[in-house]
Amino acid sequence: MGIYPYFVTLQVADNKKDSTMLKTHYAPVPESYCDYNGHLNEGYYLVMLSLATDTVLDAAGLDAESRNALNFSAFTVQNNLRYFKEIYKGKRLTAYSRVLSSDKKRLRIWHELRNEEGTETYAAVECLLVGVDMASRKSAVWPAKVETIIRELQASHEQYTWPMGAGNAITQPAQGASV
C-alpha cells in the first residue's frame, strides 16, 4: 500500500477558506513508511509533497499528455522543507498548494501538508522549479498556454497572506558562535 494520491481536486466550488488552493488527497499513511521512532520517515514528507507539485503542474497544463506533446517539463531546482508535527500510521492527509510567484522560466510554489480537515499543518515546503525543453534538457520559457495558466493560478492565490517561512533560507550561527 502506498501513499499516492487517491483523489485529486483541483478547485473546490465553495466559499470556504483555501477554496482556490490546489489540493492533493492521500491514502492513509502505511506502517511501512514509518521509521524506528514510530512516525512518518522524513523522506516521505517530501515524497508526498512532490506529488502535490505534480498536482500544480497538471493544473498548469503540464500533465503527462501535455508534457509529451510539448516535449517540455519542469524540474525542481530547490526545496526548503520544514517539519512541524509528527505524522503516524493511518493518518489521512491533504496537501494544500499555491503559486507564490513565477516568471518566463521559473515557478515558485508552496505546499502545506495538513490533516484531512485542513485545520492542522504538519509540514510545509517551498519549491523552485524551472521550465525545461526536453529535447535540449536545458531551461526554457514556459509554453504560452502554460505561462497563461500559471499566471492565472498565481493571481487566484494572491488573496492569501504570504506564508510564514516562505523565502527563508537555511541559516546557522557564525562559526564559533554559541547556539
Explain this structure.
The chain has 179 residues and is of the alpha+beta class. The protein has a single domain, classed as Hotdog Thioesterase (Thiol Ester Dehydrase, Chain A). The protein is 22% helix and 32% strand. The chain contains three helices and seven strands; from the N terminus they run ββααβββββα. Strands 1, 2, 3, 4, 5, 6 and 7 form a seven-stranded antiparallel β-sheet that branches. A hairpin with a 5-residue loop joins strand 5 and strand 6. The chain is globular and about 45 Å long. The N and C termini lie far apart (42 Å).
Helix and strand layout, with pairings?
Elements: E1 5-9, E2 22-26, H1 42-59, H2 64-70, E3 72-83, E4 93-102, E5 106-115, E6 121-133, E7 138-139, H3 144-157
Antiparallel strand pairs: 1-2, 2-4, 3-6, 4-5, 5-6, 6-7
